[in-house]
TrEMBL record:
InterPro entries: Ankyrin_rpt, Ankyrin_rpt-contain_sf, TPR-like_helical_dom_sf. ANK repeats lie at residues 89-112, 131-163, 164-196, 197-229, 230-262, 586-619. Pathway: Protein modification; protein ubiquitination. Belongs to the fem-1 family. Keywords: ANK repeat, Repeat, TPR repeat, Ubl conjugation pathway. Pfam families: Ank, Ank_2, Ank_4. This is Uncharacterized protein. SMART domains: ANK (SM00248). The keyword Repeat applies.
Length: 683
């Protein structure tokens, strides 16, 4: 009886699936051509519909879909194979079945339909889209042992990988599916096969704390000291995640205290993540680490307690223990000579006197500066945590209304990033974007009523803007050398947009012409234009101003005068030489973009007065006039008619433009003098 009810429920779900698919316009062909004479069209529609039925039933009970089998069983073998290889939502029916543990469906697809057991698809795991995931990877990651056995039995490659080179074995190790790990290894899985980051199955098992899998892999002689691309080992991973049990097992199997590409040992890794129990285990192990390493780890752990755990007493205990270690042994290990004081750290000097430590509790702010100084000394400016916690402390100050302290710290972190990281690094992008958000927030509070904040100092805004221009310049140079990755063009676009937002804030109230501030701003804008950086659509800074509707900032000024496209910024860019006739990859000028995205009479007039051609044609054959008439809603037509009439098109149409139109329509461009061809083709 229960089985009958389940099957009725399943049929009902199939009806819902069919209705859902019918709403999809391109799938309606199946239903509309049932009575058609063209059987090929019927077959084509059915091929399209079956993967969707299986996809929409992915969360149903584990037995075979009746509707799908009805569409499959009367087909020729080649046709069925083609059908089950069809992708829907970026994936195949077999991948869906394996991801969701539907053994009966997977078995039917493989044994009755000849589904390719190695054909990958797109799946979601833990909120992340996994590209090119083979069915075996999906079954292993989801913990479906029976499906793993079925796939391997039918020829699935045990060392197949996803787009990021993750193997089924690594997927099973991630979530601790020991039985699957053992089965895959027994059937030839390579325990040393790493993903694109050089991260092995042992490393991920150690990071996730799956002790049983770790011990199993070690019995198979997994390389306990193998390093990833960034130089970290399995011991680094478990020290970072905090698994003491795994740490002990690795040490017993010969794990070494190696350093990664940042010079971080597993001991320092445990200290920077705040795992005191692991730090204590390492420093108490005989002959494992040196005195200096013990001292650095304790001091770094204290800094972590201040900034991450907000435990001042715990930090003080760590620093006292480190100080005792310095003076207790022979010889005494003094702290290195003090570095020059930093204004961002409020000119704090690192404490070298043990008796002065107790006084820190009376001055929490001094204690926070000590944490920043100690971290920078031990980790160095190149380590991401150094600049991260400087920025974190600045954000805390900003939340407390101490904006000048925040700006000083953030500038120090930005200088550090630009000197140590490669151009367009995501951390540098984040710093520039945070500055833009902060300045926008401060300006918005000057405009609106409510919480009052101090006004933005223009010299600080200009200081950051010049650093943003420098980042654009360095990024463009890197792209020109051909050494950039594909994603760096997108990174350059982000930095460009952020830089333009800073410029928009600066140019809203231009300084008086002839002043030092005016000259500095004018020079920085000129340099930005001359860099001639473009996004992946070939759009320069002037294009981007018109292509960004509104603002990319969540807390930006509410006043429309600060939002893109800003007339003040457009005038300033044109004044320093921005070309209003420049074209992007589609042949569109800024006037085309203005017509498409922001048809404002004031902005259009600014462009036309600067030399933009009102009759310029892009690659689609569109002009400013045709674009503003392209939206046929009544309200838009009325607005665009007023816009077109308000700019007096005849005023901006020259005799040369009229002649160019005639020449282009009448004559072959090859007969036009070369120095005139570009002008003619523009019209």
């Amino acid at each position: 009886m229960a089985d009958m009810l389940n099957r009725l429920k399943h049929v009902y779900l199939n009806v819902l699936c069919i209705r859902e698919i019918m709403r999809n316009s391109f799938k309606e062909d199946y239903f509309s051509c049932r009575n058609a004479e063209n059987q090929h069209e019927v077959q084509r529609a059915e091929v399209a519909i079956v993967p969707d039925i299986i996809f929409l039933n992915r969360n149903c009970d584990n037995y075979l879909d009746v509707t799908a089998t009805e569409l499959l069983e009367h087909r020729e073998k080649d046709e069925v194979v083609k059908l089950v290889s069809t992708t829907s939502h970026g994936t195949t029916p077999l991948v869906i079945a394996c991801r969701n543990g539907h053994y009966d469906v997977a078995e039917y697809l493989i044994e009755k339909c000849g589904a390719n057991v190695n054909q990958p698809g797109l799946v979601m795991f833990d909120g992340e889209m996994i590209e090119r995931a083979p069915p075996l990877w999906c079954a292993a990651a989801a913990g479906h042992l029976a499906l793993v056995k079925l796939l391997v039995k039918n020829g699935a490659r045990v060392n197949s990988t996803t787009k990021t080179h993750s193997t089924p074995l690594r997927a099973a190790c991630f979530d601790g599916h020991f039985d699957i790990v053992r089965f895959l290894v027994t059937h030839g899985a390579d325990i040393e096969m790493a993903n694109r980051h050089g991260h092995t199955s042992l490393m991920i098992a150690c990071y996730k704390g799956h002790i049983k899998i770790v011990k199993f892999l070690l019995t198979l002689k997994a390389n306990v000291n193998r390093k990833s691309i960034k130089g970290n080992t399995a011991l680094h991973d478990c020290a970072e995640s905090g698994s003491l049990e795994v740490v002990k097992v690795l040490i017993e199997h010969g794990a070494r205290m190696d350093v990664d590409s940042y010079g971080m040992s597993p001991l320092l890794t445990a200290a920077v993540t705040g795992h005191k129990h692991i730090v204590e285990y390492f420093i108490n192990m005989p002959n494992l680490v040196s005195r200096k390493e013990r001292i650095d780890a304790l001091e770094l752990l204290g800094a972590t307690y201040v900034d991450k755990k907000r435990d001042m007493m715990g930090a003080l205990e760590c620093w006292k223990q480190a100080m005792d270690e310095r003076y207790r042994g022979d010889p005494v290990i003094l702290k290195p000579p003090p570095s020059p004081v930093v204004a961002a750290y409020d000119f704090a000097r690192e404490i070298t006197d043990p008796d002065a430590l107790d006084g820190l509790l009376n001055d929490p702010d001094e204690m926070r500066m000590q944490a920043l100084v100690i971290r920078e000394r031990i980790l160095g400016p190149a380590h991401p945590d150094t600049s991260y916690y400087i920025r974190y402390r600045g954000a805390v100050y900003a939340d407390g209304g101490m904006f000048s302290r925040c700006i000083e710290l953030w500038n120090y972190a930005l200088d550090m990033q630009q000197s140590m990281l490669e151009p367009l690094d995501p951390m540098t992008q984040s710093s520039l974007f945070s500055f833009t958000e902060l300045f926008s927030f401060m300006i918005s509070r000057q405009i609106n009523t409510g919480r009052r904040v101090p006004p933005v100092q223009r010299e600080e805004l200009l200081r950051v803007f010049k650093k943003a221009v420098l980042e654009v310049k360095l990024g463009k140079q890197m792209l020109d050398k051909g050494s950039a990755r594909g994603r760096d063009i997108a990174y350059l676009n982000r930095v460009l947009v952020t830089t333009l937002h800073l410029a928009s804030l600066l140019t809203h109230e231009m300084p008086e012409e002839g002043t030092a501030e005016y000259q500095t701003l004018h020079q920085a804008l000129y340099e930005l234009v001359q860099i001639n950086a473009k996004d992946n659509n070939g759009r320069n800074v002037l294009h981007l101003v018109f292509n960004q509707r509104g603002t990319v900032l969540g807390a930006g000024p509410k006043s429309s005068t600060y939002r893109f496209p800003s007339p003040h910024l457009i005038k300033a860019l044109i004044r320093v030489g921005a070309d209003v006739t420049a074209r992007d990859a589609t042949g569109s000028t800024v006037l085309h973009l203005a017509a498409m995205f922001y048809p404002s009479p004031d902005l259009v007039t600014i462009l036309l007065d600067a030399g933009a051609h009102i009759d310029a044609v892009n690659k689609m054959g569109s002009t400013f006039e045709t674009l503003i008439w392209s939206n046929n809603t009544y309200e838009t037509l009325i607005w665009n008619k007023r816009l077109y009439n308000s700019v007096f098109p005849v005023r901006y149409t020259t005799l040369a433009c009229l002649a160019a139109r005639v020449v282009r329509k009448t004559y072959n461009i090859r007969f036009v003098p070369k120095h005139l061809q570009a002008f003619v083709q523009m019209h």
